[in-house]
Amino acid sequence: MSELTPPMRVTLRFESLLVLLLAVALYHYRDYSWWLFAGCFLIPDISFLGYAFGKKTGAIGYNLVHSYIGPALCALAFVFSPQPYWLMTALIWCAHIGFDRTLGYGLKYAQGFAYTHLGRLDDKHH
Fold it and tell me: What InterPro entries does this protein's entry cite (predicted)?
């Protein structure tokens, strides 16, 4: 695992903040339900339960739910089947991931929850 430089860490977190803001802005523009947004925003964090089965399983579960692959597939489904729930799901999911990564919660390594692609969570430079 290579060391993340402070400027790169700032860039990645700023990029995540922009994803969060764009997802929220598009959600607002589409005039979707904010109750639904609030009710679904933390659903991806259910993936933490994987850590009950060990660090590797936890990291895999967390990463499956906290990568942009799922929201991108939902957005693609919206393109081919313009049902609003596809885009709502994609936007809420992207907002969640952007929020987490803005706070420094990156994709996990098997060493443990604190080891992320954005650096260690308990790192003083974090």
Answer: DUF4260 (IPR025356)
Q: Is residue 1 part of a domain?
A: no
Report if pTM > 0.90.
yes
* Mean pLDDT value across the chain: 93
Q: Provide the domain count of the chain.
A: 1
- Cα 110 to Cα 28: distance, rounded to the nearest angstrom: 37
Average pLDDT over residues 82-96: 97
Q: Is residue 94 part of a domain?
A: yes
The percentage of the chain sitting over the pLDDT mark of 70, rounded to a whole number, equals 95
Q: 39-47 long-range contacts, Cβ below 8 Å, gap at least 24?
A: 40/89, 40/92, 41/92, 41/95, 41/96, 41/99, 42/96, 43/96, 44/93, 44/96, 44/97, 45/96
